[in-house]
Design goal:
The chain has 101 residues and is mainly beta. It has 1 helix and 6 strands.
């Protein structure tokens, strides 16, 4: 559930980007019920890649595992990278800018 919230916030930020931002690269592979993967890179330095796979198909432990990376450049020029995993154990982000729990 948390990864859906993070995704929604990210989409909101991207849709508020200046109109002069161009998509430099976009890849999308919807592999059906077994998962998906996509990646894109924008002219403003934002890039994202994500891949989902179905684990333990057909069992009681069936779950989607999503792994991804998002990078962006802050107004001060600092580049941030957020790596994440979302699966049956929840959403787990990692990044040098995040506090360590």
């Amino acid at each position: 559930m948390k990864w859906i919230i993070v995704l929604a916030v990210f989409v909101a930020v991207v849709t508020c980007a200046p109109a002069d931002v161009e998509v430099l690269r976009y890849e999308n592979d919807n592999i059906g019920i077994d998962g998906y993967k996509f990646a894109y890179e924008q002219s403003d330095g934002v890039s994202r890649s994500e891949e989902a796979v179905l684990k333990n198909a057909g069992t009681e432990q069936e779950a989607i595992e999503v792994r991804g990376t998002i990078s962006w450049t802050a107004p001060d020029g600092e580049v941030y990278t957020l790596n994440f995993v979302a699966d049956e154990n929840g959403y787990r982000p990692e990044g040098a800018h995040l506090p360590h729990l």
